[in-house]
Amino acid sequence: MKNIISDPLKFAALVAHQLKGPMASIGTILQTIQGEFAGPISQKQKDLLTRAIASCDESLVTAQRLLSISRAFNEPSAFKSQVEISSIVRKSSASFNEQAEKNNITLTVKINIEPAYAIGNEAAITEMLEAVLSNAIKYTPDNGQIELILLYNEPMKMFEIHVSDSGVGIAEENREKVFIPFFRTAGARASARPGTGLGLAFVKAIVEASGGNVHIEKSHLGGTEIIINLLSAEKSVHAGEVETKKPPMKVVIIGGVAAGPKTAAKIMRLVPDADVTIVEKGRLLSYAGCGLPYYISGAVKEQRELMSSPAGVVRDPIFFQQVKNVHLLNQTEAVEIDRKNKRVRVKHLIDNLHSLLDYDKLVIATGSEPIKPVVEGIRLGNIFTLHGVSDAEGIKAALERGKARDVVIVGGGLIGIEMTEALVRKGCRVTILECLPQIFRLLDVEMSMLVENQLESHGVRVMTNTCVEKFQGDDNVKSVVTNNGTYPADMVIIAVGNRPNVELAKLAGLEIGQTGAIKVNSQMQTSDENIYAAGDCVENVEMITQKPFYLPLGSTANKQGRIAAINICGGNASFSSILGTVACKVFDYNVALTGLTEFAARKAGFDVVTVLVPAPDREHFVAGAALVMLKLVVDKNTRRLLGAQAIGSGHTDKRIDVAATSICTKMTVDQIANLDLCYAPPYAPVIDNIITAANVARNKLDG
Ligand code: FAD
C-alpha cells in the first residue's frame, strides 16, 4: 500500500478502479428509475435523473481515462500491436455522425490511404480518436465544420490524423498545457460544456505509448487542429520494435435488429477482444419488432421502451460502443460482398460515401421485408406496411391526425390480426380482407373459425375469399376494390407476409434455398465457410417433415444469432430445425400453436388421429379460471404427437410449450399422459389440459 501511495499515478488508477464498479451500478439504477421500471415518476423527476445520469457517465469516463493513462505509463508493451487505422477512423467518425447532424455541424472525413497498418492498441486508439472527436464536437458551435483527415507521411513513415474544427480554438500559450491532466483553458472553464480536463492528457498518453506524438496547431477552419502521428507498422516491424501479436478477429454483421445484435453480443462475451462491427441501414437498432402493435395501441407508451434492456438502458450506438464494445455503423447500407478479398462495401447513407470493411467472418442478418401486392393505387397515401419503428410512427401519426376511422387490413395472418386489436383499441372500424378461405392459416380451419368469431364479436368485419384488385383515392386512399365488393378505407395496412432479404447474398453467389431464403447448415454457415447467416433471411428445416420451411420469428432469429456466434468463435453449436411455435393475443383469446396442423400432417402423408378437448385452464372453482380449447394431432402409427393448437381466454401458451417440448423429444401420447406437471388449483386442473387431451387421443387410438 505504501508503494502505491508514493506513486500518484498508480494511486489514482487504484481509486479509479475502486470507483468504476459502484458508479456503473448507480448509473444502471438511475436509468432503471428513469425508465419507470420501478414505478411511475414525474417529468420533473425524469429531468433531474437525466442530469444525474449524465454526471454519472462523466465520472465513469474520468475513471476509465485515469486507468488508461496509468496503463499507458506502466504497461507500454500493451500499446504496440498492429492496427488498421483507416477502419478505426471511419468507425469513430461514424459514431459521431448523428451528434454532428443534430448540431448542424458538417463532419467531413478524408481517408487518403487504405488499408493503413499502424502501431497501437485497437481499443485504445479508437477511444483516443473518439475523445478527440468528442472534444471537437463539444467546442464547435452549431452550424460549424469539423474535418478529419488520415494520410501517410512517406518520408517519416508515419500516419497523420488531422482533426480540425471551426470552434473557439486554443491560444498558442496553452497548446502545450492542455495536455497536462486536469488543465482547462479559461474559455473551456467559462463555457457551459462539461469536461474534466483529462481528455487531451489521455490522448497524449495513448499516442506516446504507441510510439507516436501529438501536437496542436491553429486550424485552417479557424479553430483547433490536433495532429496525431502514429508509427507505420511496416517501418517498425523492420526496425524490430513491434511485438507481433495476432490481430483481433474481425467480424462484420449486416443487420442490426434481432439476429445481428444477438450475434455481436455473444461474440463479445466469448472473445472480448474481437473487432465486431454492425452495419445497419436504418437509424434505430436492436428494437423489439414484436412490440410494434402494442406501441401503436398505446399499451407501450414510449418508443425507447422497445429499444431498452430489461434494466431500462436504451440500446443505441453509444450503448453498443461503450457497454458491448461493438462498433455500430447505422444509416449505413452494405451494398456488396467481395468474397475473394473478404470485404464488404458499404454506403454511408448520410453523405452517400462508400467505404470497405475487411472481415475474417461475415454474418448476414438482413431479415425480411413486407410483401406489397403489385396492384393499382398501392402508392397512395395512408397505405402502410408494418415492419420497423418508422412504419409504426407513420401509422401512429395518421391515427393521431384523426384521419383513420375506417381501416382495411389486407391479410389475415399474425401481423394483420395483432394490428386489428391495436386499431380497434384506437377507435377504428376494422375490416380484414383475406384472399384464402380462412384467416390465420397457421391453424386448422375449425380453429381459425374460433378466431374469426372472436374478431367479429369485437366489431371486426372479416372477409375471406376476398382479394384486393386496386386501391382508389386522390392523394390518400379512400377505398379498396376487391373481387367481393368495395370497402371504404381512410387507412390500409398491408400484412400479406414477408419475404427474406437475400439480394446481397444472391449477388455474392451464396446458395439460396427452395423457399427463397439463404441456405445454411446446422452451424448457421452459408455456402461460403466464412459467411454465416441468421434470422429472418435464412431458410429453416421443419422438424417433423425435415423439409425446407420459412417462418420468420424473433425467437428463432435470436437463437440462431447465438449459434452463429459460438461457431464463429471456434465452438461447436448447432441449430437443426424449427416447429413454428407461435402465440398471438386476439382480444380476449390467447391463441398458440406448434408443429403440424391436421391439414399439413395429412399433406405430408401422415395417417392421423385428432382430438379437440375444451376444459378450464385451472380448477373451475378458482377465480380467473378460463376455457382452453386444445387440439392435438397424433400420428396413428407411432402414437407420436405431431402438432397442437390451443385457443381460449385461459393459459394456452403453457400447454403449447409442453406440446412443443414433447414433439422435440418425440414423445408418444402415452408418455405425455404420464408427464408430471404442476398442479395446484390456481394454476391447473388436477389433470392438466394436455394430459386429458393425450388420454382422449389414446382412447381414440385404442378404439
Ligand atoms: P429484421 O428484424 O428484419 O432486421 C434486419 C435488419 O437488417 C433491418 O433493420 C434492415 O434495415 C437491415 N438490413 C437489411 N439489409 C441491409 C443492408 N444491405 N445493409 C444494412 N442493413 C440492412 N416474432 C415472434 O417470434 N413473435 C412475435 O410475437 C412477433 N411479432 C411480430 C410483430 C410484428 C408487427 C412484426 C413486424 C414482427 C413480429 N415478429 C414476431 C417477427 C420478428 O420481429 C422478426 O422475426 C425479427 O425481427 C427478425 O429479426 P432479424 O434480425 O432476422 O431481421
Task: Explain the overall architecture.
The protein has a five-stranded mixed sheet. With 703 residues, it is of the alpha/beta class. It is elongated and about 95 Å long. Strand 17, helix 14 and strand 18 form a beta-alpha-beta unit. The longest helix has 32 residues, at 43-74. Bound molecules: flavin-adenine dinucleotide (FAD). The site of flavin-adenine dinucleotide has 34 residues, from helix 9, strand 9, helix 10, strand 11 and helix 14. Flavin-adenine dinucleotide (FAD) binds at residues 254-260, 279-282, 289-290, 292-293, 333-334, 365-368, 386-387, 415, 418, 501, 504, 535-536, 552-555, 557.
Write a compact overview of the structure shown:
It is built from 21 helices and 32 strands. It has 703 residues and is α/β, with parallel strands linked by helices. Helix 3 packs parallel to helix 7, helix 4 (85-102) runs parallel beside helix 5 and helix 5 runs antiparallel to helix 7 (199-209).
